[in-house]
What does this fold into?
Amino acid sequence: MTRQEPLEEQLRKIKAKDSSASRESANLDKIICVYESYLETIFGDFKRIQSLAASKEEIYKFISLLPKYDKADHFDVCTPTILSILVNKLPENKNITLDLTELTRPQSNLGSKLSSRNLVIKGNAGNFLGAEMKSGKITLEGNAGDRVGRDMKGGEIIVNGNAGENIGYGMEGGTIYLNGDYKSLSKLIEGGEIYHKGKRIYPLKCQNKNL
It folds into this structure.
């Protein structure tokens, strides 16, 4: 890939070249073009890796790229989506550890739609950890954001840290283990079980006639 001049330097040159107030519209168009080019450079790396047949080595290569893009807009949403796609391409029953401790922002949607794989995440997760997961196991060695297990169908999520609000939002099955503090459970849980520090907090006996 051709080394691209930093965005800030390109914008400085544009500003120096077109300082006239009468050219504000033209400047804006140039700034937009530069920014779009900048985003293409960033996500070009991601798309190339996403298109590969996944292996642990390729996933670790992808993770090694992430720190230099940590400040990019929407990075904390796009990155975990691609990571989840790569993990779900692995052969079933594989174990993989994602070390995200060098990233400054928690990543949302980690473990999305996980099925028949064991995923360990080192570092903090953003919102929607394990969203729509079907089976397998996610172990988070850090804190989680809101809506852990959103629309979860099965499997296990273990959070060895604190968690946010609306835990289990839309959850239909599976089990969530919260080993730290949490802010609130969702009022829209349809099934499954949730434990807090070894004690079941959903469903309570009064919520399940079979217990």
In short: The helical segments are 7-17, 24-50, 56-65, 75-89. The mean pLDDT is 79.
